[in-house]
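Protein folding task:
====================
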Amino acid sequence: MTILTPFIILGALGILFALLLGFASKKFEVQVDRRVLKVREMLPGANCGACGFPGCDGLADAIVNKGAPCNSCPVGGKETADKLAAFMGADAVDSAKQVACVMCQGTPEYATEKFKYKGIMDCRVNHNLQGGSKTCPDGCLGCGSCVDVCDFDAIHIVNGIALVDKEKCTSCKKCIEICPRNIIKLVDYDQDVYVRCNSHDKGKDVRQYCKVGCIACGICAKMCADGFSVEDNLAHFNNAEGLDPEQVQKAVDKCPTKAIYPGLKIKEEQAKAKAQEAAVKEA
């Protein structure tokens, strides 16, 4: 009996603690809205924060309890938005898919440098060193900070500048937020024309340091007034419905510096980038 006493005491204590824990779990139970759990299951789970909320859990709670739009998740896109709208009994919001685009094509053959940067490969460090190695104050520095933060392998450095693979881009905006020169913008996925320049300098200054920069000559706006405008020394393309494709193409062809970049050429660059990656892996 003396030998069994400790085991009996430990068993009794175990039962007592189990009862206490069971009581505490019921007493202090946090009620979770099952709708939040269901919405959370529908979200992709990237936890990228692109929606503006602290991860997918935060967005799920915001959709159910705070009226956040069902299309708040850029990673999930329209498919996820439609599922959420159906579950929440809300009207589906038809929003165009967007992707990131680097508004610079100043590769070494086209854009000059003030000095050769040999520091750590971080665009922010480069930018803070005498305003950056590239002469253009708005040109891509090509150190790859945007590449490092992309969780979807959607952006790479090709020939000295960043290039986005629109098929992989989820418009999470991480590359936009980390770029010290603010040259990465969101554009519509189906947009075929971009003014791939972000310089607001006068045309004569742009010509000094970049062969493919926008010089704000206004020819594009004259050729296609509905599609192009020039503000603060920089041309902008209006991707609106009803534009005459022939007029847009004329504007693209007449651009003296080829700063207006057709999407077809971007796809060609993407193909080259993938080919280069494949060659490196095989080597």
Remarks:
- The chain has a mean pLDDT of 86.
- DSSP finds eleven helices and eight strands in the chain.
